[in-house]
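Example with several molecule types.
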Amino acid sequence: MKENRPNTERYTLADLENWAKATDQVDPPIRLGVFGDPVAHSLSPQIQNAALRSGGIDAQYARFHIRANELRSALRFLRDLNFVGVNLTVPHKIAAFAQIDQSDESASQAGAVNTIRLRDKKLIGSNTDGEGFLRCIRSEFSVDVRDLRVIILGAGGGTGHAIAWQCAVENCERLVLVNRTHEKAEALAGRLRRFFTGPRVLGPAARLQAIAWEEAALRAQLADIDLIVNATPLGMNTSDPSPIPARLLAPHHMVFDAVYATSKTSLLRAANEAGSRGVNGLSMLLHQGALAFQIWFDREAPIDAMRQAL
Ligand code: NAP
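Resulting structure tokens for the full complex:
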């Protein structure tokens, strides 16, 4: 007889290849998960398993340690398994876009995928990060992104793309894109240009800009910025430096760190020091997760149960 074994482990590509054997004793069956590298930190299993239990769905959600060079094979195995879908996290969101069968508007616009649902062995990609970000900013800072001047650090990554597109679609007041590999920020700015043709902001600052990741360039922008977003993984390790030094922050800034870590990230400590309001990635995690659940099960997510699990 099968034991009712709650799953908290990490699976790998080798497990997906021999799925029946790897999960022989697991009950309820794993039919959802998150692919990432690293993935041990992910709190998605916590919120999604709470949602599954609360919804009376006989399935569980697991972590999969899938490296960048393993994504293609992992997605290929997934097609033949009885999965409802998966989430993708760092570093897979952009690479996955080229490896799915269909994408909805949210994924096509962002050019990045964080949620896949399986239908008839086809992988259909969506992106709930952008809308999750919007809901998070509204609930944590009581403001709408459309009224803000926003700078995104790490705009070239999967999360940065999704957040940038959402800011553009909302027609935020200003958008400044910063990325370690500057060309990616430039390329994204080129694709977003059409959203920023109207003169909404008074003053000389351009509505859309990609700037170099240099202190002088950042300093020049930050007087005309309300919301600072960290979409890099800096902060996932306790030893990581802040992506932006405290001396550049001012009390009028709202600081959103998409990273969620057990202790305060150095960016949020810097925000504290500067007297600015700082929020970590937990609220975005909750909202993007609730939207993913809705995509998988075509019903509203039990968000209170998910929130409680965090
Ligand atoms: P990704 O696609 O791998 O992108 C990483 C981005 O960060 C790229 O722009 C990269 O720049 C930049 N970067 C990486 N290391 C850096 C460093 N040492 N210094 C400066 N920039 C660096 O990753 P992702 O999936 O977007 O995830 C990014 C972070 O957001 C992760 O920490 C993830 O956990 C978090 N996240 C949180 C939520 C939430 O719900 N709270 C949702 C999604 C993601 P290059 O282009 O130069 O490589």
